[in-house]
Amino acid sequence: MKKILFITLAVILALGVGLVGCAPAEEEEEEPEPSDTVVIGVSWSETGPLKDVHDFAFGPLLSTYLDEHPTIKVGNTDFPVELDARDDASSVANMIDNTEAIIANIETGEAHFLFGPTCTAFLEAQAPICAEAHVVQMTAEGGATSLIAQMGEYEYTFVNLSFSDWFELPVFAKLIAEAHEEAFPGTTPHAYIGYQNDDHGLEYSGVAQTYFPQEGIVIDGLYPMDSGDTAANGELIAAAAAANDGAGSDILCVFAYPEHVFGTCAVAQALGYDPKALIVGPGGCFGVYGMVIAADLAEGVMTFAVANDKTSPAMEELFNDILVPAVGAPSVDFWGHPCYWAALEMWEESVKNVGEVLASGFVIDQDDYRDYLRTTKFTTVFGETWYVDGPDLNWPVPDATGGLLNYQCHTGEIGQWQSGWVEIVGYEGIGTASDPYELANYVVTEDFIYPKPAWPTP
Predict the structure, then answer these.
(1) Which member of 172, 224, 236, 408 lies 3.0 to 4.6 Å from 197 by CB, making a disulfide possible if both were Cys?
(2) Contact 446, 415 (CB under 8 A)
């Protein structure tokens, strides 16, 4: 009996060991396959209401950069760079689908990098997808005012453009306040704001409501503008002209997309409203605005601009030797192109230092790529260039996150159309170490004209 019990116990133990040994192992994460090309994936708006932004902003700049840099050297191997560009037709739902497809390719090694998309709302929708997938989001068009507080959550997001409070509207408000006091001492400047009725416009109108009153600028009204609503142009101009007790607002702000910006000057002229200052963007920063669309009406119109060909020798080379010959002066973007070029220079240096060659193929780890971007000071067309994680400018931080291209690197924030070109304008003291916004790299290329010249006679 004891023998039978012993045998039974032995069988049970053996089966137990066998069952333990056969337990399913945890599924290991699949590693990307090495590739014989470096592939950039991007979802952008080749069609739809955002097409004008795509056509004059990151689209031509990326094509120009890849023409100038068709291969990238990793170790001792030169890899061709290919672009997997997908049109989202200005639809955030399409952008999300495209993003998920590109990320799936990154996970298998068929693609390696994600750039884009075309506007602030799309950028914000893409950020959490990239955070969840642990894929770096290298952005172009789009601001991040509402994302700054979430950068710890979106640690794979890198924002490269200047935007409302990074550090455009603080500079604009101080510039207007100083110029108005000099030209019309003892009077109060009044502003009217038209804004795109989406994340972009809400960001700019909201930030204006913070910084304008700080500089003594009274906001007469706010007017939302929807895509496709061309009547909004005339309604905005009429409202601004009737404001300020019928005298018209001194400053008109059009924080909207090119479909609204491009017609602003002509509509204002036709309705007889001639503000002392007019700032438009995006759209006014494109060469086509002041050289073709607005042409003789653009003199004195303001826009957002981080550089021109006069802000440094590196920018002179970028504008005159690369951009203008490649895309033509009307396709130059004084706001975005310098930032996007700097971002691509940082991207390329990161790839060279973080990318690996395995089995004669290219691979890159997204975490290593992210860490290199957020901890390195690069040399770009801006000079020394680096990312920070928010307005406090502390970098690196203990819980290091994604980043914003530091506004201290910018060579400009506000431009003004003068004699067919965008000049960088500023107030007294800007560009010095004592500037309240620490914009010591700011380069003023021409004096600010205020009030702007009157519209020419129709």
Answers:
(1) 224
(2) no
Regarding pTM above 0.85, the answer is yes
List, in order of start, the domains of the chain with CATH numbers.
38-164+332-408 (3.40.50.2300), 168-306+410-424 (3.40.50.2300)
Torsion sign across C-alpha atoms 294, 298, 304, 308: positive
Our measurement of the distance from residue 210's CA atom to the centroid of its chain's CA atoms, rounded to an integer in Å, reads 21
- Rounded Cα distance, 193 and 173, in Å: 13
**Angle between helical axes of 168-183 and 199-214 (0-180°, round to 10):** 40
Closest by Cα among 334, 338, 444 to 382: 338
Q: What is the pLDDT of residue 148?
A: 82
C-alpha to C-alpha distance for 116 and 412, rounded to whole angstroms: 23
Q: How far is CA 119 from CA 95, 125, 142, 290, 408, in A?
A: 11, 10, 5, 22, 23
Interval 259-306: pLDDT, tens? 999 999 999 999 999 999 999 999 999 999 999 999 999 999 999 999
Question: Are β-strands 302-304 and 421-424 bridged in parallel, bridged antiparallel, or unpaired?
Answer: unpaired
Structure-token match 């192992």, residue found? 25
Q: Which token pair is 373?
A: 């971007």
CB atoms within 10 A of CB 21: 7
- Sequence-ordered strand ranges (E) for 378-445: 378-380, 383-385, 387-388, 403-405, 414-418, 421-424
Cα separation, 444 vs 442, in Å, equals: 7
What is the maximal distance between C-alpha atoms in the chain?
118
